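---------- Forwarded message ----------

FYI, see the Probable glutathione S-transferase GSTU1 record below. Original note from H. follows.
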Amino acid sequence: MKPVVLLGFWGSPFGQRCKIALAEKGVEYEYREENIWGNKSPLLLESNPVYKKIPVLIHDGKPVCESRIIIQYIDEVWPHRAPLLPADPYARAQARFWADFVDKKFHDCGTRLWQLNGDAQAAAKEELIENLELLEGELGDKKYFGGDAFGFVDIALVPFVSWFYTFENCAGFSIEETAPKVVAWGKRCMERESVANALSDPHKIYETVGAAVLLDFWVSPFGQRCRIALAEKGVEYEYREENVVGHKSPLLLESNPVYKKVPVFIHDGKPLCESLIIVQYIDEVWPHRAPLLPADPYARAQARFWADFIDKKLKGEGHAAAKEEFIGILKLLEGELGDKKYFAGDAFGFVDIALVPFVSWFYTYETCAGFSVEEVAPKLVAWGKRCMERESVAKTLSDPHKVYEFVGALKKIYGVE
C-alpha cells in the first residue's frame, strides 16, 4: 500500500473533492474504486466503521473520513503548495460555512430532485433554485468563491457541476438561466487540470442515477411479481440471480438483514424488501405509465386486501394446506374475479401481479394433490391464460414442468417425501 490511499466511487462528488484537493497539492496516491452498491471492501468497512461509506483517505495507515474533513486534513498536512483555506480566521470560518451549506442544502435538495416525483420534486426544484441564487450572490463577480484563489468552497461545490445536466433533465429547467455566474464559474474551474481529471461525464451520471437492481431467484413467484411490475412500467434494471438454497450473496444479506430473502429491489442504492411493498414502490416512483393500483382509495384498499390474502394463503398456510382447504382458497379467488377481465376490471393491476406467478405452480399443485385446478376454478384458469398473453407476464413466469422438477429436487434436499 502506498503512503496515501483514497477509497472512492467514480460518480461520488465527495470522493471527487478529495481527488481535486490531492491534485492541487501534487500529492501522489493510490486510488481504489469501491463497489458502494455491492460488496464493500474489508478495508472500507474497517476504515470507516461508523458510516461504512466513501470517501476514506488513508495516510500512513491512518484513515480519515468525511470529504470536508479530508480536504482540511490534506491542506494541513501539505501546507506549502496551493493553500485551500485562507489564512485569515474569519475568512476560513466563512469558507467552512459555505462548504457546509453546499452539503446541507444544495446536495440535499439536488438529491431529492432526481429521487422524487410530483409535488415533492417540484418543491425540491424551487429549493434548488433558491440555493443556486444564494450561491450566485455569494460568488458575485469574483473569479472563485475565495477571490482570485481556487480554494475550499470551490472544491466543495465544483463536483456538482457534473450533476447540473441531471438536475435540469429531471426537473425541466435551465441552471444557466437561473445562475449564469455559477455556470461561468464552473466552466472556469473545468479549465483546471485537477478538476477536469476528477469530474464525471454528466451524461454517464444521468444514465446511472436511475439505476435499479433486482436480487431474485428464477422460480420465485415473489420476485416474478417485481419483474412483471418493472416490465409493465418499462423500467430498465439489472437482474442478479441469487443462490437461495446455497451461499447467499453479501449484497443480499446486507440489503435484507431481517429476512435474508429475495426479492430485494435496490433503487439508487437504497434496498426495498417484500414483493408487495416493492410493487407499490414501483407504482409510486414511476406513476406515469400503466398504474398498478387504482386511484380510488377504497378500490386501493380492496386490492391490498386481496393481495394480502394471496400472500397469507398461498405463500403461508397454502403451502401446508390440505387439498380441500386449497380448493377453498381457489374458489374464493374465483368468486372475487367473477366475470371481470382482471381483478380490478379491464385494467391489469396489483392483485393480478400478486397472483399470476402462481399460475406456473398450478401443475405442481395438481400433480401433488391429484386434482384439476381448471375443474375447480375455470374462470381463474382462463384469467391466467389472458395474463399470459401480456409480454410482461409471458417473459417472466417459469415453465410449470421446471417448477415441478425444482420442487422435487427441493424435497430431496430437505428429505421430504
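H. also flagged this: The CA atoms of residues 104 and 221 lie 42 Å apart.
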